[in-house]
């Protein structure tokens, strides 16, 4: 299959992160499933299959917030209560939240390569969401070692939570954001 480079460039360079979504309009499960499958299409050195994906909708978003709040408290017992409260409540801002983790590997080099594969998978999901007309935002979790959250998601022990992607139908056009100016070195 081939798509023209100009169309792909337009998609990749115009994609905007946004949480300006209609909180009440659900994203069909079939579409979310299709987007999640794009995570697994990312390149992966040694084909270790490090991706772990869980989707939270409905009351599952509240459960996600509660688990992340507990993980935050476990990692940082002196964190201000206002930050914990925000962590517990913010996952209701979109109809679907996709948690994406990286399965652990004892080899630090392979684990680093696996983290890169998971990040590439997240970008695949974001590009797919844009192509489908959805608004999406990749958020960093409050802690990477989120044992309660990973258990809730059914992830392997020791999985690092690398991203939380909010998905929803846009309620308005996202604001333009400044992208980094490309710096490309040529050595000939």
Question: How does this structure look, described?
Answer:
Helices cover 41% and strands 15% of the residues. By secondary structure, the chain is α+β, with helices and mostly antiparallel strands. It has a four-stranded antiparallel beta sheet, sandwiched between helices. The chain starts with a helix and ends in a 20-residue tail after the last strand.
Biggest sheet strand order reads: 1-2-4-3
Mean pLDDT: 93
Strand segment count: 4
What is the strand content? 5-15%
CATH topology tier name: NADH Oxidase
- Give the helix/strand class: alpha+beta
How does the overall form come out from the CA principal axes?
globular
Comma- or semicolon-separated keywords:
single chain; alpha+beta; NADH Oxidase; 188 residues; 4 strands
Question: What topology emerges from the helices and strands here?
Answer:
Elements: H1 5-14, H2 29-39, E1 51-57, H3 59-75, H4 81-89, E2 96-102, H5 108-131, E3 135-139, H6 147-153, E4 160-168
Antiparallel strand pairs: 1-2, 2-4, 3-4
Helix pairs in contact: 2-5, 3-4, 3-6
Please provide a brief summary of the model:
The protein has 188 residues and is of the alpha+beta class. The protein has a single domain, classed as NADH Oxidase, CATH 3.40.109.
